[in-house]
UniProtKB/TrEMBL annotation:
Protein's name in the database: Cyclodeaminase
Domain of life: Bacteria
Cross-referenced Pfam families: OCD_Mu_crystall (PF02423)
This protein's GO CC annotations: cytoplasm
Amino acid sequence: MQLYQREAIEAAVGIDEAALAAVEAGFAALGRGEVVQPPILSMAIEEANGEVDVKTAHIHGAERFAIKVSPGFFDNPRLGLPSLNGLMMVFSARTGRVEAVLFDEGYLTRVRTALAGAIAAKHLSRRDSRRVAVLGAGEQAEQQVQALRLVRDIDTLDVWARRRDGAEAYAERMRTTGLAVNVHDGVNRACQEADIIVTATPSRTPLLHARDLPAGVHVTAMGSDSPEKRELDASVLTRADAFVCDTRAQSEGNGELKAFEGGEVPFKVHELGRVIAEGQRLRLTDETLTVCDLTGTGVQDTAIANFALSRLLSG
């Protein structure tokens, strides 16, 4: 059994084309029905504004599978600590023996989450998209934009965050990457000229409404991953010409489809894996409005863990 610390993992794996291809292949396998993926095991630590999720999946024919333990404690930044932590255990899919433990401290989760956002934009946004609006100013807000630049020629970034000082600090960091960055006091102003909107917050109340959406925009919502969180108002979902999620079951329990809890969802729900595997074209014109809800899946974790371990073993 091999033990790897974050420093070695971070040196081997980054937000790049190869990692994107590995995660995209995992989504496609899910879409083809080639994945065993049990429901998420989730536990709230309410007194510390925290939660712990356990995710896993097996891709048919893959040499290994991973089990990830992912704590998220959202008051940690006040303590000078990252919100996410955790590790991945990688097992042989033939014998069940532990082959490696990746003490990544949540790093691989951040990478595969950012790559999932880029994959959604690759298949759903306009190919000429250049301007992205980000709601949120944390680490994932940075990495979502970094990953988007693998699939779209992003040159302008608009940002809104609850804390103006946080948004300004984020803007300064992002300007060093060569982007033109604008900070806004309101969500509507931030989104007015966007080609792509990314919501990257732990919000428990909707932040984005249909009135904020310009024609032809693509929205990726990746902050809602537990029953208590919501980023999108129901009007965003009903206005969309195409609504996509990583899995419908997770979106209904943890994601944005909670808006219709107890009632019928009044539109067709697509899953990202099938969109990829079947080559579905959901964007029919430049005016098509698309929304993708990403709650985070076990297949993403197995895909990135397999990719990481392959890189580590070959390095």
